[in-house]
Amino acid sequence: MKPSRLFQCQACGYQASGWLGRCPNCGEWDSFKEKKDKLEEFNFDLPEPKTLSQVDFQEEPRFSSGFSEFDRVLGGGVVKGSVVLVGGEPGIGKSTLLLQVASNLASQNKKVFYVSGEESPPQITMRAKRLNRSLPEVYLLCETNAQVALESVKENQPEVVIVDSIQSLYFPEIPSLPGSPNQLREATLKIVEIAKKEGITFFLIGQVTKEGQLAGPKVIEHLVDTVLYFESSLSDLHRVIRSVKNRFGSTDEVGIFEMGPAGLREVENPTSHFVSQSLERKGAAVAPVMEGSRTFLLELQALTNRTFFPNPRRLSLGIDLNRLLLILAILEKNVSLRLFEYDVYLSTAGGLRLNDPAADLAVLVSVFSSLKDIALPGEMIFLGEIGLGGELRPVPFINLRLREAAKLGFKSVIMPKYDKIEAEKPIKLIFKKNIKEVLGLLLENG
Ligand code: TYD
Ligand code: MG
Hints:
The chain is an alpha/beta fold and 446 residues long.
C-alpha cells in the first residue's frame, strides 16, 4: 500500500491528509506543509545511563542584577547562560524594569545588548533619561529580524541580552506571521540554543495580550529556564514580580517594586508602606499578611458612622466586599451590636489589595474599635481567620508572620491557639478561641 501523505498546519499543528488553503482548526491561511516523518535507520551509540551521584555537579555561576528584589525572584541572582521570560500586561513596566537591570549590569562592566523590536533608539534613550540612567555599556539593537539580531549577538558576544519583546522577533523564511505561535517558538528555541552554547544570559520580554494576533508568553513557557510575571496585584503603585517556573530556584519568592517618576524602586521593607505611624489606633488594627513568601504588616482602617437611611452603606477598599459583609455578620451575631444602624467603611493602608484570610481578625477588631470608640493598644497585632461561628482559625506560615512582627517591635499578638510555635520570641502570644473572648479582652483594656 502506498503510504498516505500527511500535511501539517505550521501555525497550530493541525494535521490533514491533503493540502488545505486554510486551516480548519486555527483559521490560518496558507499554513499547510507536507510532513515527512521517515525514521532513519537506527545507528546510534547507546548512551550509558549514570546515577545521580555519578554526575559531576557544579553550582551555576550567578551574578547580581543590581536589584536584590529581582535577584531574590531569580533564586539568588542571574544564572549565566539562562533564559528568563518576563511576562506582563502592556504598560505594567517590563521595559522599564529591564532597562534599569541593563543599566545596573552595565555599571558592573558587563556587556549588555538591548534588542528592541518595539521602540526606536530615541524612544529608549528618552526613557533612559527619564530614569536618570546613562547607558554607556548598553548596546541598542533595534531589529525585528530574528536571524539578523541573533547573528549580531553571536558576533558581538555580549554577556546579557534583553529582548523587548520576544513577539516582535520573526524569521522571514517561516511562513507564519510575526508574533504567531510558530514564530515565537522558533525564535525562543534558537535563543535557548545560543544561550546554552555561548553561555549568554537572555531576558525575554513577553507581552501578555488579550486575544488577537499576538501569541501570549504561555506558548514558550516550557522552553525557557525561568518564567517571571510582572503584575500590579498588590496595589496600583506597587509592582510585584513573581516566579511561576524556575529551574534554578524556588517559585514562591516575590519581589516588590514601586513605580515612580524615575522608574521602579525596590521596596525592601513593604511594612513601612502599609502601616501608618500614628499612635492613635482608634478604628485601626494591624495584621501580619503574606504575599508569596513575603510577610509584612498591614494596617486595616475602619470608619463607622450612624446612618440615616434604611440601608446602611458598606464600602471596602482593598478587601473583597463579601468578606467584609461576612465578618460584619459574624460580629453582629456574636455581640449585641446594632450594626444595621451604622455605615461601615473599610480600607487597607497604602491601597493594598489583600486576599489573605489571616487579616479577618484585624478587620473585625478595627470595625469594633471604631464602633465602640475605643483605642487599640498600638503595639498589638491581630492574626487569624474567622469561622462563621465566630471561632478563630489558624493560618499557615505562623512563624514567619510572628518573626516579622517581632522584628518591627510589636509587643503582643492576639491569635488562635497553635500547638507548635517556635519558642523564644520577644513577642507575647495571647491565645483566644473565639471573637467573644477577643472583644472581651479589648473592652477590659479599652
Ligand atoms: P513600560 O516599561 O513601557 O511598560 P511595558 O514595557 O510593560 O509595556 O512602562 C510603562 C508605564 O510606566 C508607563 O505608563 C509610564 C510608567 N512609567 C513611570 O511611571 N515612570 C517611569 O519612570 C517610567 C519610565 C515609566
Ligand atoms: Mg515595553
